[in-house]
Amino acid sequence: MDRLDLIKTTKAYQSVADDYHKQKLPHCNLLVSPDLMSRELFAIAFASLVVCDDKNSVVMQNIAKKIHPDVYFLPKSGTLKVEDVEVVLDRINYFPMEADVKVFVLSNFSSATTQAQNKLLKTLEETPPNVYFLLCSEKDDGILPTIKSRCRRLELEPLSESALNIFMADYNTDEKTIEVANFFGRGEMGRTDFALTNKVVGELVDLAFDILKKCKSSSNLLEYAVKLLKYKDNLALFLQIYSDILGEMLRLQILDEKNNFAKLDFDSLKNELSTDAILILIARLTRLTEMLARACHSTLIIDDLLIETCKCANMKS
User: Fold this and answer.
1) Tens digits of residue pLDDT in 26-85
2) Cα 269-275-278 angle, rounded to 5 deg
3) In this predicted model, what pLDDT tens digit does every residue of 89-102 receive, in sequence order?
C-alpha cells in the first residue's frame, strides 16, 4: 500500500469519495491539517478522484507530477497572492483540455493575503459546475470567515495505528527510532517521516528526558546549557519535543494509564514533576516558543527553560 492509498483510508477522504459517487460533492472545499505531506497527498487523491475517478493510472501519475493541464496547483511557491488568483480567474472559464472538470488546489491558504482571499470570494460563491476548489491549510487562522462560509470544511485526521504501521514498515531502522517516530509523529506522515529520517529528533528526545530527570539544582544548569547550545539551530524543534513530552507526562498522571511508548521511559519521569509543575512548564514553553519566533537570543531561551525546569522540579506536590 503506497502513501496515496494510506491517505484514502482516512475518514476525510472517504467522506469526499462518498459524496462524489453520490454526486453531492461540494465544489468548494477547505482541507485543514497541520501536516504538509498529508495535505499534499490528499490534494493529489482529491484531484485524481474528480478528474478520472481513480481509474486512469496515467492521468493519476500526471496529477501527482503536477503536469495535468486541468489541475492547477497554486501558488508555485510561498504565499498565495493576488496574481495567483488572477491566474485562477483567467483560466476558470476555459473548457477543460483533457478531463470533464478542472481542479484548483490552493496551498498554504491560511497565509494567503487578504487581498487575494477577497478577490477569490465571488468565484467561490459562483463556481462553475465543472470546477472544483480545494483550499489547503495548516489551520483555520488567517482565513476570512466569508471564505470559510463558502467551503465545506474537511479536517484530515491522523492515520490509524494500522495505517501508520504500514507507513513505517518501509523504513529500515531500529525499534527505538520507530518508537520515537511514533511518539513525535502523532500519526501524521510528514512528522513521522521527519523523525524516521533525521537522527536529531531521537537525540533531542533523549536530551529532554535527561533534563527532566536530572536538572534539579543550579549545579546542573551550566552542564545542560552547554549541551543545548550544540542544538541551537534546532531549538524550535527541541521546544516542541519538550512540550510533547510534558503533555504525555500530564496525560499519564491525570489518566493513570499505561505508557504506550515502551522504548521511551516515561515511567522514569512519573514522580519527577507534579501536575501543577507540568502545567507551569507547558505554559512557559508556549511563551519561549513565541520569543524564539521573534528572534530572541537562543541563549536566553535556553537559560530560561532550564531555570524554570529546575524550579518546577523542586516544587512541592
Assistant:
1) 999 999 999 999 999 999 999 999 999 999 999 999 999 999 999 999 998 889 999 999
2) 70
3) 999 989 999 999 99
Q: How far apart are CA 234 and CA 232, in angstroms?
A: 5
CB 42 within 8 A of CB 31: yes
Please check the confidence at residue 226 and state whether its pLDDT lies above 90.
Answer: yes
CA 198 – CA 207 distance, rounded (Å): 15
The secondary structure of the chain, three-state, reads: CCHHHHHCCCHHHHHHHHHHHCCCCCCEEEEECCCHHHHHHHHHHHHHHHHHCCCCHHHHHHHHCCCCCCEEEECCCCCCCHHHHHHHHHHCCCCCCCCCCEEEEECCHHHCCHHHHHHHHHHHHCCCCCEEEEEEECCCCCCCHHHHCCCEEEECCCCCHHHHHHHHCCCCCCHHHHHHHHHHHCCCHHHHHHHHHCHHHHHHHHHHHHHHHHCCCHHHHHHHHHHHHCCHHHHHHHHHHHHHHHHHHHHHHHHCCCCCCCCCCHHHHCCCCCHHHHHHHHHHHHHHHHHHHCCCCHHHHHHHHHHHHHHHHCCCC
Question: 187-196, 266-275, 277-286, 305-314: which has the minimum mean pLDDT?
Answer: 266-275
Residue where the block lists cell 503533555: 247
Of 64-68, 102-106, 156-160, 256-260, the range with the lowest mean pLDDT is: 256-260
CA angle 227, 232, 237 (to 5 degrees): 100
Is beta strand 131-137 parallel, antiparallel or unpaired with respect to 28-32?
parallel
pLDDT above 60 (res 184): yes
Q: Which residue has the cell 469526499?
A: 16
Find out whether 247 and 160 touch, Cβ atoms under 8 Å: no
